[in-house]
Specification:
Structural class of chain B: alpha+beta
Helix content of chain A: 55-70%
Strand content of chain A: under 5%
Shape of chain B: elongated
Oligomer: heterodimer
Number of helices of chain B: 24
Helix content of chain B: 40-55%
Strand content of chain B: 15-25%
Order of helices and strands of chain A: HHHHHHHEEHHHHHHHEEHHHHH
Number of helices of chain A: 19
Strand order of the largest sheet of chain A: 1-2
Largest sheet of chain B: 8 strands, antiparallel
Number of strands of chain B: 21
Radius of gyration of chain A: 23 Å
Distance between the termini of chain B: 51 Å
Largest sheet of chain A: 2 strands, antiparallel
Shape of chain A: globular
Largest interface: A-B, 67 and 75 residues
Distance between the termini of chain A: 27 Å
């Protein structure tokens, strides 16, 4: 580790922390329907949308209506995206004349983008037309992010409101998410990216003659506009196959820094908004603190492991030549920014990558894997991370709350059997899908293991990573596993769907149940949720619920690989 | 008197051992999903071991049979914990039941004659005559007569109490003994349905139902069990992939170690023990739900008299008028009160004695002609005539009227001033006059019980608000409230006011606890979340509340709250401990499972356990023994302290959270050393 590396990580931390409050205050205004400084542009558009779509903005929904609206909206989006890919040959903006995408890949991609996973079974520049990229994928990046944000808002309202069934209007929350938050920020970010040298055009692909005399095709396209929302909406689906490692998709260290900020800015804002809406600013900061702690542990573990490099190389190679394990990393980012990016993109369920996680050292690769396994709650996907963390908070309050000699309560609400039941269901679905599907794949030689490029512990990591990434709606790939097979396309599709929607339903049920509860006035005897101690407790519960489930299998994959590497074993 | 039962009571332990085997019945076990999983695992391994014996499969027999046995022990230990708690409940019940010895009753017939019948034959509305030296045959109400009754059989309090017809002291309990006089009692319950019968059933756990929090906790534990079941079931395919397939003995061992057996095994014992602790304080709870609610109480309604203050007003000061010697005033005050048998009168005599060494005198020594002047509603004063000397004490108006009649006395502004000052401070002023001349004023005040201020302060730290209920005027009430340190008061309280206050607090989402004894308290007792009825109270009050205090001590409400909190804390502490234990168990079992195939994984064996088998066996043994080890804690409850939620959390987390992580590392290592030394693994 170098001073400059540590400094860059800490700089990121400081800038992010400074942005959390303004972001949270603004988001609170947006979701409370209060006046904002953007009203003069977007209010007329917002009104027009409601008028055209015949939405009564004042009409609030209960949790079931809200959930139904969300499911219908997602279903329609999936179908639309599917056919857009299938028929892209007949649609405009296709200068390369790319043909329609195959049925199974179209399905996989549609599900992947609707669930905010953005797992990519295809290479963007060789598969998707500009129209599909922009009208399909980029638009869906906005929509799936807005859905996640709306759902987090519902959960926060469930906590902040008392004795009501009303949780807000799905269409309004989603429209406002897009208009007031996603569009302006993406716009600014895209302009900035262009200034860094990111491309934004509709040109056909260039060809160039390399020094070696080979003809190289250089892909073009409207990259900047898509990258902005890809990061901001924690989507992560790259324009190019190489994602944020591609020079057109992430040209400079500065663009890299801003991309990393974009990933955490909305999830960070949600923590402040949680505190503001529930009138307990300290609680928001405690949750932020818990997330930051887990984030820093991950970052420094990965950075430490990567800068130590592979002990099997001579020390001179590790330290003097490249300063650590440089395989699969970009020279313009270096070890520190690759480790930082890998941690951020897996903490939040973004999934964009600026280095190849498969090439990390075992411990370096364990960090992204564990981050997703903890349930994508360390900031997490936009919205999804917030509601995931709130479920963890419910469990924390329930387990530890009794220790103050009262039945568990959270911000003036009793946590009762129904809430615990739904929270446990939420916590159960996640490992069920990951471990279940990975276990079947691990013992099926014909369809499970045949896709592996590596054997042994590393092979198991690859299988595990694929299902973890899909279920956690992360979308980053460990690579090394050929997932473009019938078995993996299907099961990963199921994992993405279940990991998104089956977890949303119990979550919404908790929100609905919480909103109905009576308020218990806080007193000195109330379980404190705004202290560092609470943050520490929350961290422990996240680790216990997440890590204890996965520790046995991790000990056979990255942990085993680490000890094997340390003992000098090669494969 | 507390009826403590030793944890090591031989008889209870013996019975609990038998019961823990009876409880192996799968139907019973199904109520406890965590332990049910362990039982199924144990049964499965038993079949496997037997199968191996018959087929002659050459397994690792010694190891397998030990694992199987320890799994059975785990189940038995959990059952034992529950049986212990139930046994202690039964023992408590038995002491209560002793009060129900077979007695005969004198049944009053319509014609006025009596007939001796067995107490068990008595029906509701029968009227019986009970005379000195006889037991009261059943719960009932005094309809005629006054008697002193020994209720020590149920309250443990040896001082007799007065029971009389009408009013709030008319209820009598079956099994108590009349010491003097006689009473006629109307029986209010049929045999087998008496108050004590119902209570005994509850304490024994026969009719115990799971409380809401217990149900929620059970869901959490069942959920965790399923998650770990999933982790273990899927581990085998991963192990097969890694060429390190595991035996079923090892997998089930891992499962049992990971699922929360500690809290799963002790949960119901904790609940029963909570009810039990109340009984030790001579409080009977109608349901476990009431005990849980006690822990959540936000507001305590406390009757002033008897709870916050001693029963009566007491003289606390003599305030003479200018030019009058204080001792002279004290002397006159004492003389005027010599024949006054009211508690106030006696307190004046005592104060004069304490302050000025004036001994109570025999009146006939003082004068040849003495005459007591009793208090009447008309004169509103009392006193004494000694030869020609007239000493009076009374309310200021009465005394002023009395002196004005004689020698043209003008009302003294000084006297008025003193009187007003006392009244403002919440006291009662009594003016003393000697020879128709006012001497000064006796300050009678409510005496706040010792230590109450500190207790209210503790309650405040725990976030509990105390409200004093009194019939006094607001001025007096405010002064006492301030002195006692309660947070709020309700003055000139009528039963409806009390009810309104409870409803108001509840509307704000608060839980309210109160005590009461009179029939007019019954609606409020029923409305309150925790209503503790005094055993001396009327039947209606007892029926309305959800707890009964056999000692009839209203102060005990505070202890009831503490016991409720202790119950919840014990549950939380053991849950945290149980989950925290898993960390160490992983470090014992995971390297043991895979080190044979991957020796590098021995790096995870940070406890340096001897062999894979000793490691797994040690974890399983620790897991079983920790249940036994924690039974005393589950039965006694974690140590309770009146602290704020933050400090309590910090403390308990340190002990049970951090302790829960560290303890098994040490425990498993010790067991490993022992079983290796004994050659068991």
């Amino acid at each position: 580790m170098t001073t400059s590396g540590i400094f860059q990580i800490l700089l990121y931390l400081v800038v992010l922390t400074l942005l959390v409050k303004p972001m949270g205050v603004f988001m609170t205004k947006v979701y409370n329907g209060e006046k904002t400084f953007l009203d003069f542009i977007f209010k007329p558009i917002e009104r027009l949308i409601y008028k055209l779509c015949r939405i009564d903005a004042a009409q609030e929904m209960n949790w079931k209506q809200y959930g139904a609206a969300m499911l219908i909206f997602s279903l329609v989006s999936t179908i639309a995206l599917y056919f857009m890919q299938r028929w892209q040959f007949y649609l405009p903006l296709n200068p390369q004349g790319l043909s329609g995408v195959s049925a199974d890949s179209s399905f996989n991609t549609a599900v992947s983008f609707v669930t905010n996973t953005n797992w990519q079974g295809y290479g963007g520049e060789t598969t998707m037309s500009y129209f599909t990229q922009m009208a399909g994928l980029a638009i869906q990046n906005f929509k799936s992010a807005a859905v996640g944000m709306a759902l987090a808002v519902v959960f926060i309202r469930g906590i902040a409101r008392f004795e009501t069934d009303n949780l807000g209007n799905f269409w309004v929350d989603m429209t406002r998410s897009i208009l007031y938050i996603l569009v302006p920020l993406s716009f600014l970010a895209a302009i900035f990216f262009v200034s860094q040298g990111m491309i934004q055009n509709f040109k056909p692909y260039d060809t160039a003659q390399t020094v070696e005399g080979i003809q190289q095709t250089i892909a073009q396209g409207p990259v900047a506009s898509q990258v902005a929302i890809k990061m901001l909406g924690t989507n992560g689906g790259g324009f190019f196959n190489a994602n944020a490692a591609h020079p057109f998709e992430n040209p400079t260290p500065f663009s890299n820094f801003i991309q990393m900020l974009l990933i955490f800015i909305i999830p960070g804002g949600f923590t402040y908004m949680l505190g503001r809406m529930t009138k307990s600013a300290g609680h928001g900061w405690a949750v932020y603190g818990a997330m930051i702690f887990l984030f820093l542990v991950g970052t420094f573990t990965a950075y430490w492991a990567e800068s130590k490099g592979n002990p099997l190389y001579p020390a001179t190679v590790n330290q003097q030549v490249v300063g650590g394990n440089f395989e699969g990393k970009e020279v313009r980012f270096g070890v520190a920014n690759s480790a930082l990016f890998a941690t951020i993109t897996t903490d939040a369920s973004c999934g964009a990558v600026n280095s190849m996680h498969d090439s990390f050292t075992p411990i370096g690769g364990l960090v992204p894997l564990t981050n997703i396994m903890l349930g994508e709650v360390i900031f997490g996907g936009v919205g999804a991370g917030m509601y995931g963390m709130l479920v963890m908070i419910i469990l924390t309050v329930f387990i530890a709350g009794l220790m103050v000699g009262r039945t568990p309560e959270y911000l003036g609400k009793k946590i009762e059997a129904y809430d615990v039941q739904m929270a446990m269901l939420y916590a159960l679905i996640f490992p069920l899908i990951i471990l279940g599907l990975a276990a079947v794949s691990a013992i099926a030689p014909d369809f499970g293991l045949s896709s592996l490029n590596n054997q042994g512990a590393h092979g198991l990591s690859e299988i595990l990573y694929a299902f973890t990434s899909g279920t956690g709606n992360n979308g980053s790939a460990f690579a090394g596993l050929n997932a473009n097979t019938l078995w993996y396309n299907t099961t990963l599709g199921v994992a993405m769907l279940v990991g998104r929607f089956f977890m949303i339903i119990p979550m919404l049920a908790i929100a609905g149940n919480l909103a109905r509860k009576k308020q218990i006035p806080p007193s000195l005897g109330t379980f404190p949720v705004n202290t560092p101690l609470f943050a520490a407790l929350l961290v422990s519960i996240v680790i216990i619920v997440g890590a204890l489930t996965f520790f046995p299998v991790l000990s056979l994959s990255p942990i085993l690989e680490h000890f094997q590497m340390m003992s000098g074993q090669t494969f | 008197m507390k009826k403590e039962i030793s944890i090591w009571d031989q008889k209870i332990i013996a019975q609990a051992l038998i019961d823990s085997i009876k409880k192996l019945n799968p139907k019973t076990m199904l109520k406890n999903p965590v332990m049910f999983v362990v039982e199924v695992g144990a049964a499965f391994l038993t079949l496997k071991v037997l199968g191996n014996i018959f087929t002659g499969t050459n397994g690792n027999f010694g190891f397998e049979i030990q694992i199987t046995l320890w799994l059975w022990f785990t189940v038995l230990f959990a059952n034992f914990a529950e049986a212990m708690a139930e046994g202690r409940g039964k023992a408590q019940a038995d002491t209560l039941r002793k009060a129900k010895t077979e007695t005969n009753a004198k049944l009053l017939k319509k014609d006025g004659s009596t007939e001796i019948v067995s107490a068990t034959k008595l029906r509701k509305d029968d009227v019986v005559l009970v005379e000195a030296g006889e037991f009261i045959p059943g719960d009932g109400e005094v309809i005629e007569g006054v008697a002193s009754v020994d209720e020590s059989a149920i309250t443990g309090e040896s001082a007799p109490v007065i029971r009389e017809s009408g009013g709030d002291r008319s209820a009598v309990t079956g099994g108590t003994k009349v010491l003097s006089d006689w009473i006629k009692v109307r029986i209010t319950s049929n045999p087998g349905e008496t108050f004590i019968d119902r209570m005994i059933a509850l304490v024994e756990g026969a009719s115990r139902q799971k409380t809401p929090n217990e149900i929620a906790l059970n869901i959490l534990l069942a959920g965790l069990t399923i998650i770990f079941l999933l982790a273990v079931v899927t581990l085998q395919p991963f192990a097969i992939y890694s060429n390190a397939a595991q035996t079923i003995f090892v997998l089930i061992s891992l499962l049992v170690c990971l699922i929360p057996t500690t809290i799963g095994g002790l949960l119901s014992a904790i609940g029963i023990a909570g009810m039990d602790r109340l009984v030790q304080h001579n409080v009977l709870a109608m349901s476990g739900r009431a005990v849980e609610a006690a822990g959540d109480v936000n507001t305590l309604l406390l009757d002033k008299t008897g709870t916050i203050t001693l029963g009566n007003r007491q003289a606390s000061e003599f305030i003479p008028l200018k030019g009058v010697d204080e001792k002279l005033l004290a002397d006159a005050a004492q003389l005027s009160s010599l024949a006054d048998e009211t508690p106030e009168g006696r307190s004046i005599v005592i104060l004069a004695k304490e302050r000025y060494g004036l001994r109570g005198r025999e009146v006939h020594e003082l004068a040849t002609h003495t005459e007591f002047v009793p208090f009447t509603a008309n004169t509103r004063m009392s006193g004494i005539n000694l030869d020609n000397r007239e000493i009076r004490k009374g309310a200021v108006d009465a005394i002023e009227k009395y002196v004005a009649n004689v020698n043209g006395y003008k009302p003294s502004p000084e006297l008025r001033e003193i009187v007003e000052k006392i009244a403002k401070a919440g006291g009662t002023p009594l003016v003393v006059a000697d020879g128709r001349k006012p001497l000064g004023v006796i300050y009678l005040k409510d005496i706040v019980k010792g230590g109450m201020r500190e207790r209210f302060k503790q309650l405040r730290q725990m976030g509990i608000k105390t409200v004093m209920i009194t019939g006094d005027n607001p001025l007096t009430a405010a002064s006492i409230a301030q002195e006692a340190g309660v947070d709020d008061f309700l003055a000139e309280a009528k039963p409806e006011d009390k009810m309104a206050l409870i409803k108001r607090e509840q509307a704000e989402g608060k839980l309210v606890a109160m005590t009461g004894d009179g029939t007019n308290d019954a609606p409020a007792l029923a409305q309150a979340d925790v209503g503790v009825a005094m055993n001396t109270g009327t039947q209606a009050a007892k029926e309305a509340g959800n707890m009964v205090d056999l000692d009839s001590d209203p102060t005990k409400l505070i202890e009831v709250v503490e016991i409720g909190k202790q119950l919840l804390m014990t549950r939380g502490a053991l849950t945290t401990f149980s989950i925290a234990n898993d960390v160490a168990k992983y470090f014992a079992i995971i390297p043991a499972m895979f080190a044979a195939t991957f020796p590098v994984l021995n790096a995870l064996n940070i406890m340096a356990l001897k062999t894979p088998q000793s490691a797994i066996l040690s974890a399983v043994i620790f897991n079983a023994l920790v249940i036994i080890g924690l039974i005393p804690l589950a039965l006694r409850g974690v140590k309770y302290r009146a602290l704020s939620a933050s400090s309590l959390l910090q403390r308990n987390l340190l002990i049970y959270g951090l302790g829960g992580i560290i303890a098994p590392f040490i425990g498993i290592k010790i067991i490993d050393v022992i079983i290796t030394a004994l050659g068991l693994a």
